[in-house]
Each structure stands twice: as structure tokens, then as C-alpha cells.
Amino acid sequence: MDKSRNVVSAGMPELPKCPSGIQGLDEITFGGLPKGRPTLICGGPGCGKTLLAMEFLCRGALQYNEPGVFMAFEEKEQDLVENFASLGFDLKALIKNKKLAIDYVYIERSEIEETGEYDLEGLFVRLSAAIDSIGAKRVVLDTIEALFSGFSNESILRAELRRLFRWLKDKGVTAIITGEKGEALLTKHGLEEYVADCVIFLDHRVTEQISTRRLKIIKYRGSKHGTNEFPFLIGENGISVFPMTSLLLAGGASSHRMSSGIKSLDEMLGNKGYYRGSAILVSGSAGSGKTSFGAQFVDSVCRDGQRALYFSFEESDAQLSRNMKSIGMDLKNWVDKGLLKIIANRATLCGLEMHLVMAHKAVKEFKPKVVVIDPLTTMIGSGEMDEAKAMIARLIDFLKNEGVTVLATDLTIIGGKGEGTEVGISSLCDTWMRLSMELLGHERMRRIAIIKSRGMKHTHKTMDFIITNKGLEIKEIPGVKENVQ
Hints:
- With about 475 residues, this protein is an alpha/beta fold.
- The protein contains 15 helices and 22 strands.
- The strands form four sheets. The protein has a nine-stranded mixed sheet, with helices on both faces.
- It is elongated.
């Protein structure tokens, strides 16, 4: 959030903001929702409107000491308490400590008889009393369709909608009003989006049986804001929005180097190995030794007493440990000592955003110095190609910003064009090594070449790459002279 604020400062007056406390939302809104003004959250059924609104109140009470009022027209207080307990929000405790007030307003169209003109004066009195009872700074009305469902006079309804938004603004509370998506417009009445100062649209779509949630800020009067669609998740701790902060390229650059775990490879990289906090890509065809390459790196890191995290998308942790033990690496030993954590899942287990969340959580909790992702290629199975690239870019930039050195493997398509990799992320990486299999007579020989390594001298020569029962070795091909540039 601090980075976002720096972007918009530059001496210009900023609109007062009310931080939501929701991960990622305050970044794309450059500080939060408009303070003392109403915001409309709209979307279809099940997209997360009520959750976002309630989380706004809970985090406001817990993190910013701003009590809130939740006026519900569809769910009773007990239902809300039970529903949000599963997400870690103790509404009962907040209510007991006067940090939250829930007022359920029962509206049943069949029990309403329209006679003459009417207005929302009664609602204002009730809401005002709830605000005053706990000194609320935040208010939620969920949902506006339920509030107006009992009335058919369109002109009065539109006038009262305007009056409601104006009343909330005059009251000085930061308000969220949720609304159902209309068929042709953002909302059913088509007016709320015009009178609200900020409009956020939530979308829940399913593509090829993979569910994805998206958030888009439609408008934000008087403030810059992110204009893209941002993926978001409803996880065990509420909502997490994933902005493309990677585009800021604000990460640092370490001048310290670390060993690759293979002495002869360090020599190829100017005798010093990789830069700490850099991104390394190892591409190659099937069977060229990519997984062994990643395992050798984490084995070396653990030998130095540092933590490493290994994301395996093709082998279970037991299978990976067994296979690597056959070439002299006892990964289970490092797991038992708490220096190595192997997270093994099929990439199709969940969508791309969930993988990103899992990676964020694992890195934050385990605090590794090195992360290996093996292989990136399987991510394509969790979404569209462009989405996979965007997710991988966010993941790599997140790790680099955390100062974590990341090594990713990628499958090279045999017969593909040029030197590209299957998911085309080589340009995001600082060091790119390519493994290949060459047929010499009746024997297939492994080769390794450094395609690029930013900021250091390195050899451009192709070398022999050998997998032994004591680990990996790299040797010169007989008759080829060294050429370090």
C-alpha cells in the first residue's frame, strides 16, 4: 500500500480514503474507499458482495478502531454470525464490544400494501439510532434490491435512492451498499452506479470448469484507481485481491552471489554462481534433468543451513525424495530437519489464483531463501495461456520482491520455434539455462548451455551435463575450448 501511495503523491491533494484492510483492495484503490462517502458493490449472486462488505466492517473495527453498522435485509444476525465464523470473523465478540451492530430489517413483498406516497424516513431514523449507539464510522446496507423490493412506483423509488445516498454522505459515514447485477446495466435499477462515488463490480465466472473471481473498479470520483480486472479469492481469511504490483518493478537488486550447488556450473557463471534474489529458468526437453537440477540447488541451500521451498507439480514428496536419493541427494533428511518443505499438488487441483495464494502463504509462513517451482509448464492446465503468464509474472516478482531466489523449470517443446519456452517467461528471468539431449551414435548425451545471465560474465559454451549417483556434474565436451564473456 505504501508503494501505491508513493505513486499518487507527487504534491497533488489526495481524496481522503478509508482503508478497507482487505488484502490488495487498498492497493488498487490507492488507499481505500472514499472516506465519508457511499460505495456501491455490485455483482451477480454468490460473487462475494456480502463478504466484502462485512469484512470491510470487521477489519475497520479490528485494525482501525472504527465501529460499523451492518443493516441486513436478507440474512438474520444469527445467520451472519455463523456464516462468518467459518472465515475467522468473530462477529459475536465485535457486537459484545460495541465494535459492530447488526440490524436485520424484515421486508416481505406479499405483506406490503402500498397506499399513497411513502419515503425512507423510518429507515433513516432506525439507521441513525444504530450509528449513534456505537459511534459507527462505517455502514453497510445489504442489499439495496431487498430494500426496494416492496415498492413499484419507479419515480418515488429513484428519488428515494438519491435521498439515501445523499443522507449517508451528510451523515459522514463511509458506506458500502451492495446491489444485484442487472441484465443490461450494472444494477437492476440502473441508478445506483450514477449516484455512488465509487463503484466496484464483482464477477464470478467459470471457464472450462475452472472457477475464477474478478474485481473491477468501474469508477472512483476524485481519485486514481486500478482500471484492470483483478483476480480475487475467498479464502480461509477472507478476501484477497491480487493487483499487478509487479509492473512497478520496485524490487531491490542484491550484489551477493550464491552457489548453484554444482561447482562447475558456478565456474560457468563467473566462478560465483547466481545472484541472490534473482529468477533462474531451467528449460529442457523431457528427461533432460530439470528436476534433478532443482533438487541439487535446494540440497546445496539446505547444506548451508538455509531454508528452501519446493513446489512439485508432477511428483509427490515421497516420490521426489526417493528419486533424488538415487542420485545422492537425501531430501527427506532436510525435510526432517525443517530446512526443506515440499508442497506437491497437481496444477489442476485449483485455479491459477489459488496457486498464487498458496505460494504467497507458504512463503510468508516458511520464509525460505530459495524457492523451486517444478515445472511451470503445468500451470497452463489451470487456466488460459495469457492468464498463466500473468500469474507466473506476479509470482516471480513477488518472490524477487521478498528477496527469495527462485529457480523454475520449464518444458521445451521439441521442434518448437527458436529458443522460446513453452510458457514464454524467459524474458522475466535473470538467468536462463537450457538442457538438451543430443544423440551421439547410439547414445543420448545431456548438454547444458547458458542462454543468458544478466549482470555477470558467463560462458557461452555448451557443456556436457551428467547425472551421477553422487549428484550432478558438468564437464567440458572434449575438444571444445573455454570462452568466458
